[in-house]
User: Which sequence fits this backbone?
């Protein structure tokens, strides 16, 4: 809640204090500032190190395959027949994440609205905590559960009925389901990112000025009508940013995917139906990294890491950009 | 009242008039239906948590024993021995990662909150890189750890594991620290400067100490995030059946042990895998509860300072 | 009240306690730890050795990570481990890169075609070309005429075949594809031999257990796993036609027959083993998909800078124990013990090992 404001802004104050320290020039100050800047530089260095190791490590594969590495569909590590292309895994990553987003975004936003606006505060604290716990479950545990328990639910209660009733009409359901496929992977990913999107969405909704909601209620709106009129329109951008954050997480997820996506290789990894086996950029790295004795193979895997790096950075920067615009739109509302 | 607001009101008016003209009970029904639908969403999200907990307790609780917690694994499939090295390894790797990640993260947060005005471009770049670092998939960071530490040091080691996990921690801690430090009211800083304290003492004694529960929240959040990491550890600490035996040999960790146990054909190994998962979940969930406590406490501290 | 100091104290004490665990279980003396990594197939056997060898020499800790054969070779060449283990011999380029590696066969395995056909109770018979066609996606139904022909009298369901293969690079895949390349020219030309190959169809599952679990969890599937895994998980598996035309079920005896018929052709430990293969071997009762699995050491153990003289001696002692006394644990775990002819080759190899030029075994006081 609002803190008592000093008559100086934060920035003013810091600047003034800088002048002070310059005059007195304490050794401690210099040392501390050095420490703080050192830590900041270290952070920058880590990003540079990650980027450098990826670029350096993937150089051989780009030298050999050029841009074909990104659009190629072969993945052959057999000695003498080496040929590596990332496209199937890029597609696999995008398809599994798209399925996850299609499920997770509406559910997460729904939950955020439900917790923030539809129920009494005491209940909402409990529910919010439960959703937080979901976020705390390590992905290897999700993987264990998905492999031994959840995939059979999906196969028997979702995939089989869809396949039997619609399989001959809609090609997406045509393949005989097995439970380890891009569809299952998408659903488990959705379960994993729901708490993340929910948490950020709740913050976004919480930040909407109360006056908006009160105005809607004053006009006699029901809860849902208030949400529709006073919350969703201003929160739209923020909710999009929240979704992008979830997407970034989904794209990088590894162990879970490795256990449930079916791990197809090369051209076979491009899903032709919802129930196709596939492979993502991160899962193939996890599957093959420790096994790649061949230099070119290793370089190709690091190359996949680079592609993954670029995709996630792109998505995260989009998310950052969207979220930074949100605060502006709220200040418009407050005027 | 500005023009903007009156426009808004017109907007609501039309919406509300529109709906009032319809049957009021239909509006109520719609409201209730949607409430039920949203409630279903919550249930859908919670079912997996419930199922995971049930399965883990059902399958894992039988494995728990004194021997299971403190001894090295027996030969595979015998069902004997325990996951002592994995527990020890997780504690050590996480502790060393925190030893690197927490100071760096907190200090970077201090820069962003207290020094960012001395160079806005640098602060902007730092914030951006920090966000970038948060978004890098852990497996990619694992590759970096393998190339830079495992290959150059010549062995899988706790250091490589801790280094990799610290990279995951830093941006989380930096972000949370920056946000909590900024919450410290400026008049507290002014009061401290008024007493003639140098800047670093003001920052250390007033700003950092004043928001330590917030900073701890960030650290615990980061710890709970890295405790379950698996992919980067496969590439850096490798896993072993032995207790910690030096800084240049492989160590074990709970997530790795779960991964290995789950891929054996013996039912006794599966049971131990579920037992290890139970333990991991207990650790991570209790960290979440600690987080809650911090969050509660933070609310109280700031109330008392204003 | 949560206090920064209390938290630090708590953290430090947890850390100290966790370091104390090994003291409590009294395992920190002047001890030697030997790190190995590699094939998942011999893991249960090596893991038993780890525990049993403690009774032989309590000061030596064996540490083996089953990360797959490809991983074992890579870590061995990178010298991040003291020994590697692999189901596939080093390829020509790997052998060259490693410098002076020696192969020490430590046990024998065979690859089993396990399937899940709920309606079929009679054991299935398969031939090499049919298996190749199934894994290439050319035979897609269980009641395909090619399968029917070799299984007269068995009613096969008209269901899609789900083929399951290893998703991680694996020596098991190497042995399996090696066999398929020998019996199917088309497989040889289009896919080839490797620890990870480009599978044209089917499901990839991690590890033997991943494959086993996938087969058990899905009716109408077929996949390949090691014999030991098939035995412990009680899966149904197919008899396979060998070079002489007989359908042979995988077993200890049929695998041993395959080894003994090939034993005379094995090279010395320090030579290249690239072309050594037991698949599709002759002999009327030989099971056609069997293979040796190897430990990898450097001929001069000082090649790996993290190995000192004491460690080198412990390592060689351990390996010598493993290929002789250690073999007694094989059968109960589902492994085929080494025949004497192979043990003899290994003994020769171990005698030739050196540390900084000095032979290790003749030097040892034992």
Assistant:
């Amino acid at each position: 809640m609002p803190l008592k404001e000093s008559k100086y802004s934060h920035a003013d104050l810091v600047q003034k204090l800088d002048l002070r320290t310059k005059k007195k020039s304490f050794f401690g100050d210099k040392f501390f500032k050095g420490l703080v800047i050192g830590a900041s530089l270290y952070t920058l260095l880590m990003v540079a190190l990650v980027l450098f190791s990826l670029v350096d490590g993937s150089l051989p594969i780009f030298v050999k395959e050029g841009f074909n590495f990104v659009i190629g569909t072969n993945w052959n590590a057999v000695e003498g027949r080496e040929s590596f292309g990332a496209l199937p895994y890029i597609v696999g990553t995008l398809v599994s994440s798209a399925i996850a987003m299609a499920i997770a975004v509406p559910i997460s936003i729904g939950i955020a609205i439900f917790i923030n606006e539809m129920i009494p505060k005491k209940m909402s604290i409990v529910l919010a905590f439960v959703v937080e716990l979901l976020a705390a479950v390590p992905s290897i545990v999700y993987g264990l559960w998905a492999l031994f328990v959840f995939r059979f639910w999906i196969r028997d209660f979702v995939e089989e009925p869809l396949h039997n009733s619609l399989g001959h009409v809609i090609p997406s359901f045509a393949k005989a389901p097995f439970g380890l496929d891009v569809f299952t992977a998408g659903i488990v990913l959705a379960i994993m990112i729901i708490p993340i999107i929910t948490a950020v969405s709740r913050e976004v909704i919480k930040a909407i000025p109360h006056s908006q909601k009160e105005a809607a209620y004053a006009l006699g709106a029901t809860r849902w009508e208030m949400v529709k009129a006073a919350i969703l329109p201003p929160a739209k951008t923020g909710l999009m940013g929240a979704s992008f954050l979830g997407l970034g997480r989904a794209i990088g997820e590894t162990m879970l995917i490795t256990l449930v996506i079916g791990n197809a290789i090369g051209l076979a990894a491009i899903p032709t139906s919802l129930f196709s086996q596939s492979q993502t950029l991160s899962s193939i790295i996890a599957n093959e990294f420790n096994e790649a004795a061949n230099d070119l193979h290793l370089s190709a895997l690091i190359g996949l890491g680079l592609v993954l790096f670029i995709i996630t950075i792109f998505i995260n920067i989009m998310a950052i950009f969207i979220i930074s615009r949100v605060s502006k739109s709220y200040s418009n509302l407050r005027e | 009242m500005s023009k903007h607001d009156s426009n808004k009101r017109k907007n609501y008016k039309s919406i509300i008039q529109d709906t009032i003209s319809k049957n009021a009970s239909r509006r109520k029904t719609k409201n209730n239906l949607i409430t039920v639908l949203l409630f279903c969403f919550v249930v859908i999200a919670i079912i997996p948590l419930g199922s995971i907990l049930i399965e883990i307790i059902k399958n894992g609780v039988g494995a728990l024993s004194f021997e299971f917690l403190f001894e090295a694994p027996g030969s595979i499939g015998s069902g004997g021995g325990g996951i002592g090295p994995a527990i020890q390894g997780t504690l050590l790797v996480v502790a060393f990662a925190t030893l690197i990640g927490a100071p760096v993260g907190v200090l970077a947060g201090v820069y962003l909150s207290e020094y960012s005005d001395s160079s806005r471009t640098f602060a902007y770049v730092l914030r951006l890189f920090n966000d970038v670092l948060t978004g890098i998939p852990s497996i990619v960071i694992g590759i970096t750890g393998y190339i830079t530490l495992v290959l150059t040091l010549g062995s899988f080691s706790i250091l490589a594991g801790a280094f990799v996990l610290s990279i995951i921690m830093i941006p989380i801690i930096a972000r949370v620290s920056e946000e909590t430090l900024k919450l410290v009211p400026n008049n507290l800083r002014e009061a401290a400067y008024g007493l003639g304290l140098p800047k670093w003492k003001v920052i250390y004694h007033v700003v950092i100490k004043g928001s330590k529960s917030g900073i701890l929240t960030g650290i615990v959040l980061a710890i709970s995030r890295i405790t379950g990491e698996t992919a980067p550890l496969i590439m850096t600490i490798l896993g072993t059946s032995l207790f910690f035996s030096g800084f240049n040999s492989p160590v074990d960790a709970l997530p790795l042990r779960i991964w290995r146990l789950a891929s054996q054909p013996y039912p006794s190994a599966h049971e131990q895998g579920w037992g290890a998962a139970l333990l991991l979940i207990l650790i991570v969930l209790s960290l979440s509860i600690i987080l809650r406590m911090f969050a509660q406490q933070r609310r109280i501290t700031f109330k008392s300072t204003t | 009240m949560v206090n920064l100091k209390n938290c630090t104290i708590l953290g430090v004490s947890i850390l100290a306690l966790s370091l104390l665990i090994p003291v409590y279980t009294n395992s920190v003396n002047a001890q030697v730890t030997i790190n190995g990594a590699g094939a998942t197939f011999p893991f249960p056997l090596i893991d038993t050795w780890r525990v049993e060898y403690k009774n032989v020499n309590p000061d030596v800790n064996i540490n083996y990570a089953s990360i797959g054969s490809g991983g074992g070779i890579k870590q061995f060449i990178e010298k991040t481990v003291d020994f590697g283990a692999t189901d596939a011999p080093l390829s020509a380029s790997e052998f060259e890169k490693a410098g002076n590696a020696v192969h020490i066969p430590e046990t024998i395995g065979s690859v089993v075609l396990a399937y899940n056909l709920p309606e079929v109770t009679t054991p299935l018979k398969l031939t090499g070309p049919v298996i190749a066609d199934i894994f290439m996606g050319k035979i897609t139904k269980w009641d395909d005429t090619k399968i029917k022909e070799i299984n007269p009298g068995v009613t096969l369901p008209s269901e899609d075949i789900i083929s399951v293969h290893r998703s991680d690079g694996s020596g098991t895949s190497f042995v399996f594809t090696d066999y398929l390349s020998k019996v199917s020219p088309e497989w040889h030309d289009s896919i080839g031999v490797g620890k990870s190959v480009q599978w044209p169809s089917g499901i990839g599952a991690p590890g033997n257990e991943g494959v086993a679990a996938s087969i058990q969890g899905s009716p109408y599937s077929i996949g390949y796993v090691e014999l030991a895994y098939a035995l412990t998980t009680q899966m149904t598996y197919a008899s396979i036609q060998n070079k002489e035309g007989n359908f042979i079920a995988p077993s200890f005896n049929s695998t041993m027959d395959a080894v003994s018929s090939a034993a005379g052709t094995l090279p010395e430990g320090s030579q290249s083993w690239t072309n050594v293969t037991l698949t599709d071997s002759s002999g009327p009762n030989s099971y056609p998909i069997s293979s040796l699995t190897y430990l990898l050491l450097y001929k001069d153990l000082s090649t790996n800078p993290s190995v000192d003289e004491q460690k080198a001696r412990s390592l060689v002692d351990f390996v010598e124990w493993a290929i002789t006394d250690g073999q007694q644990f094989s059968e109960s775990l589902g492994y085929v013990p080494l025949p004497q002819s192979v043990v003899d080759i290994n003994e020769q190899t171990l005698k030739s090992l050196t540390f900084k030029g000095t032979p290790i075994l003749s030097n040892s006081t034992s």
In short: The two ends of chain A are 19 Å apart (CA to CA).
